[in-house]
Structures are given as C-alpha cells and as structure tokens.
Amino acid sequence: MKHLIGTNEASPDVASKLLINTDLARKILVSFIRDAVTKAGFSKAVIGLSGGIDSALSAFLAVEALGAENVLGVRMPYRSSSEDSLTDAQRVIDQLGIPSLTIPITAMVEPLFEQFPDMSGMRKGNVMARQRMIVLYDQSSAWNGLVIGTSNKTEALLGYTTLYGDSAAALQPIEDLYKTQVRQLARALNLPQSILDKPPSADLWIGQTDEGELGYTYEEVDKVLYLLVEGRYTVEEAAAQGFDYHFVAGVWRRVRMNHYKRTMPNVAKLSRRSIGHDFLYLRDWAG
Amino acid sequence: MNVTVGLAQLQPKIGDVTANLKMHLEYIAQAKSHGVDLLLFPELSLTGYNLQDLVYEVATQPTADDPAFRDLLQASADTHMDLMVGFVDTDLRARYYIAAAYLSEGQVVHVHHKVYLPTYTLFDEGRYFAWGDSVQAFDSRFGRLGMLICEDFWHASPPYLLWLDRADILLFHSASPGRGLDASDRLSSARWVQLVNQAYGSLFTNYVIHCNRVGFEDGLNFWGGSTIVDPDGEITVSGPLHEPALIVQTIDLNQLRRSRTRLPLLRDERTGLLSRELQRILGGIPAWPTSGSR
C-alpha cells in the first residue's frame, strides 16, 4: 500500500538551508540565459509550456533575459491532457505577452499506439514526452531559437524525467534548483496563482501527480537530497537527522539508479584520445 | 603617497586572446581617463579560465615578442599605468602555468606562477597546469608588492610569506566561480573570499586588493565583487556582484603607518619563533625542553 511520507518532523535547520535569495537567483539565471543564448549566436528561444510551474518559471526568466517577442511558447496537448494544463499555459502566455503555438500531439502518437495495442501507460507517457521533444526541436529550427529546458534538480536527481524527452534542451536554467526552491522563485516572480497552488503533475494520464507517483512530498525529499548531495551526508548520517532510514536509503538508491539519465553513454576507449574521456573542451568552445 | 587603483572586473572570452586584448586596451583607456596609477585584471584575463585542452593553444611568454604583451607593455609605458594581467605562461618545455604579470613603464617587472591549483569538485587545474614554485614580493614605485592568484590566497601561507617578504600591498586576482546560493544577498563563495580578504588586511595591517571576473563559462558564473581592504581590515570599496565594472579608488599609503602605530602586529611578529617551531613540526631539530633541568 502506498503512503505519503510527509509527516516527519525533520530538523528545521535543513528547511532553512533550502531558503534562497530569490533576487540573487533571478539575477544570475536571467544573465545565464541571455549569455547562453547570445554566445551561441542566437537571440530567440523556444519553450514547451505544460501549464506546470517549472516551464512557467523558465518562461518568465527567458522573457526577462531575451524580451517577450523573442520567446515562443508552445503548448502540445494530448487528448487526455487536463483542461487546467492548457488554461494555465495560456495564462503564462497572456501574462508574459509572448508569441505562442498550440500543436496537439494526439495524431502524431496515436498511430504508434495503434501498432502496439498492449502498450503500457508508461510507454505511452514516454512516447508523448519524446514526441513533444521532436515538435520543440523542429520549432527551434523554424523559429531560429534555442530550446530552453525546464528540468529542476529534484526531478533530475530522482530521474523523474524521460530520457531524450522532457530533459532534452540546449540549456537548463533551473536544473540546480530543488522543487521547493523553484516554488520560492516562482512566488517571487508572481507567476499565476493557479500554477503556484496546484499539485505538480506530468499530466501523462488522468489524475497523475508527481508526489502520488513518488510516494513522498517534495518538501521531505528535498531536505533529504540536500543532506545527501550538498551536505555529502552518508545515508546513516542523513537518517539520524530525523528521517526514516529506508526512505533515505530508497532515495539515494533512486539517485544512483538514474545516473545514466544524467551522463553521456559510455564510449569504449581504444585510442589515446577519446570523446568522453580525454577530448576535453567546454560546450562553449562551439561558440 | 596616494595611489589610484583600478579593478577591471571584466568578462574574458574563452580562448580568444585577440578579443580579450582589445577588452584590456579599452579598460586601460577608461582607467587612464580616471587617473588610475595601478590597474588590476582578473586571473587568466587574456585567455579565459576553464580552458581545458585549449591551454596549449593560448600559452605564451610575457615578452614583447608576444603580440598581446607587446601592446600591453606599450600601453603601460604610454599611460604610465602599472598593470597586473592574467595569462598562461609556458617554459617552452611543455609546462604551463596560470600566471600573473606585473607590467610597468614598458617592462615586465615580475611574474608569479600560481602555486596552489584547486583540483577538486568543479576544479581541474592540476590536470593541465604545473604548480608554481615560488612566492616572492617585488619592488615597485608604490613600494613593495606581492601578487597571488585565487587559490593561492585560500591558503594562509602565501600571503603570510609575502608579508614577511616585506610586501605592504597584496594584489590578488581570481576567476572565482559563484557557488552556494542561500538566503544571503551574496553567494557563499563571495562571502568566504571577502571574509578572508578582510582577515588578511586585519592580521597583516596591509592593503589587500582583489580583482575578480564576471560572466559565464558553460553554466559556471563568476561573481565579481572585487574589493579593496585597508590596513584596518575594512572594505573601502566593493565592486558589483555578477556585473562587469571598472572600480576606481584612491588609497593613502600613509594609512599603513597610522594603523601599524596603533596595532604593531608586524613589529611584534616573532619570525625566529616561527622558524624554530616550523623546523620542529616539519621534522628536524628536537624541541627545546620546556620544564625541568637539561
């Protein structure tokens, strides 16, 4: 039986360590986006708007960095996407005053579903995420703008993403912010209230919520991740801060098991200088 | 004596010495119009910081045979402004150093090779560079100076050595990446460095001048926040965080005398005691007996 672990009274210290100066974060991230886009030779960006808080926040930051006329918002509903998702994405488009497109993916993915009638919900979810990536990258070409990623640190660590799907992007402005920090910054930037209030969801099937799927709240897991990652606590040390040992061990195991989503595929080394080993240049080397 | 100090808090372009040289000359011209006598640039200002395999392409020697140094040496002579610039030095035997050069009146007066190379977490300097072998003060028309590069002053020993080598003004430059976002108005790496600079100013009753860069390399930001700390340990000017700027301030070298009269830490420093105890601790002469008869 699944139950949400959200009731432990963990050390209040960790929660306060997750507080961020939102003015400083905003300043650095806006500069980052502007720098990353312009040094690659672009002035525009494309962003998939799911109606969720991560893509909304990324859009707000992108607009501040590049100007509203330079950020294309793309809504890509599937027939079972909730109406709220579409409405919330539209709220972002309206509040920011950005150009937008609505490109339903239903007719793109259903033919594949029909070829495999016993395709599971998980497979369908991944197909949809990757189809959205295809649409966004094609719009990136048409619009001549870079794809802005919307990953956050919590989902990236837990692997709550689709490889080559929602995690595909040219830059990731908020991937070093935990979910609870994304919320802080989103509040400070005055995102639409409906987006700030609703439970996070990948919206890949009806009723899906992140926290329902994960089995714990973002509040709790962010504290544990902070101890394990920033703090470099061992599982035992983190649990001693007031968390259930198996919860902590489970989180760390999940981080480890999903590391393949955060790294390039292994290149078998044969030569004396190999990609992925000792051919070392910044991504910026490309310009 | 008054010295007008300039801190060129700029953002170099990775691997592009030509573009960076142009930027240096622009800052020099602007500093000259503000009456600057001594202008500091950040660590690796001519090349950018996270070079990786580009190190070998941008390495040079600080002489008039190098096009960038030719122009910078000329500028130092034309403007009568002393310059501290960052570059990759090579001994032509395939050893590369993160280096700082002090230029004055068309001459390279001193070169410092970075002696501490951070090779941990996001840093990988030890992979590409050789460790510098000396920490030495040098003479200038402003008195005796010492130069250190970033990690060099994250250790107490190099600044201490320069102080003992009679440097009254410490010139630090860095390409310090910003990390540690919390509730404070500045990143924790900025707080740490500013605290440490104030500590050196306080403990040595020295001027401590620090120039840090800004901009991004890949996803790494550089936090700026350049400072001048006076011999009382007070920050007298602080550059903006995360923004390019030319910071200009005039310092009064007579403050050294006034502060040291009130607080004679330099006078009272027991270098003989230091030497004996270091020899004991690091292996050598046995300890003097501290009690009982010999």
Provide the fold topology.
The complex is a heterodimer of chains A (287) and B (294).
Chain A: H1 12-17, H2 22-39, E1 44-48, H3 53-66, E2 71-75, H4 83-96, E3 100-102, H5 106-115, H6 121-143, E4 145-147, H7 153-158, H8 179-188, H9 193-197, H10 210-214, H11 218-228, H12 235-239, H13 245-257
Parallel strand pairs in A: 1-2, 1-4, 2-3
Chain B: E1 2-9, H1 17-33, E2 38-40, H2 55-58, H3 67-79, E3 82-90, E4 96-104, E5 107-113, H4 125-128, E6 138-140, E7 143-149, H5 157-164, E8 169-174, H6 188-204, E9 207-212, E10 214-217, E11 220-223, E12 227-229, E13 235-238, E14 245-252, H7 254-262, H8 265-268, H9 271-281
Parallel strand pairs in B: 1-2, 2-3, 7-8, 8-9
Antiparallel strand pairs in B: 1-14, 3-4, 4-5, 6-7, 9-12, 10-11, 12-13
Brief characterization of the structure:
The complex is a heterodimer of chains A (287) and B (294). Chain A is mainly α and 287 residues long. Helix content of chain A is 49%, strand content 6%.
Architecture overview:
Chain A is built from 13 helices and four strands. Chain A is mainly alpha-helical. Chain A folds into two domains: 195 residues, HUPs (Rossmann fold); 68 residues, Arc Repressor Mutant, subunit A, CATH 1.10.10. In chain A, strands 3-2-1-4 form a four-stranded parallel β-sheet, with helices on both faces. The mean pLDDT of chain A is 94. Chain B has one domain: Nitrilase/N-carbamoyl-D-aminoacid amidohydrolase (4-Layer Sandwich), CATH 3.60.110. Helices cover 30% and strands 28% of the residues of chain B. A six-stranded mixed β-sheet of chain B has the order 5-4-3-2-1-14. Chain B has a six-stranded mixed β-sheet with strand order 6-7-8-9-12-13, with helices on one face. Chain B has a two-stranded antiparallel ribbon with strand order 10-11. In chain B, a hairpin with a 5-residue loop joins strand 12 and strand 13. At the A-B interface, helix 2 of A face strand 10 of B.
